[in-house]
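Exercise 7.
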Amino acid sequence: MAAMTDTKLKKLRLGVLLSGGGRTMVNFLKAPDLPAEIAVVIASRPCAGIDRAKEANLPVHLVSYKDYGSARLEEYSREISRCLDAAKVDLVVLAGFLSMWIIPPNYAGRVMNIHPALLPGFGGRGMFGRHVHEAVLKAGCKVSGCTVHFVTNDYDEGPIVVQKAVPVFDADTPDDLAARVFEQECLAYPEAIRLFAEGKLSIDGKIVRIRK
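Solution. The predicted structure, written as tokens, is:
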């Protein structure tokens, strides 16, 4: 069993990776008594999240995936890691980050993501945002929700930390469901960060154990 780094006695330094509006980042800033501070924000493309980070006086870097492309993925990944290293980040949190980042060994077990469905269902390449909610509704699911998980170099396959469920109603549109799920995301992600900060998480194979 591999234990997470013990950060119980200090505020976590978060590295936030985003590609969109930055709502999840703002949620971190508003979360009451979150034992963490945002040390750096990295955007993979020009987006509203950059503006929101600047408004909050957060250090922000644009590391444009478009400037590298899939042919230079390793170089792109190294630049992401360089920015995180420079900010002395304890935990990386993906917040609507839509580009591939090859996670180096020194960040294994220190990267989290939130997915807008109950993994392992409705995950994988191309399953993000509205696409997920459309797929849930098309499948006729009666419940959906969100999943916070540790990130590996395989899409949406990392060990699950926290899940929260919501009902799915017959009259739901993708936007209706997305709004209901996001309410739970605003609770689940800070909860997972707190557990990490308190040193209560350990990874046992593909299972996250939570110490009481």
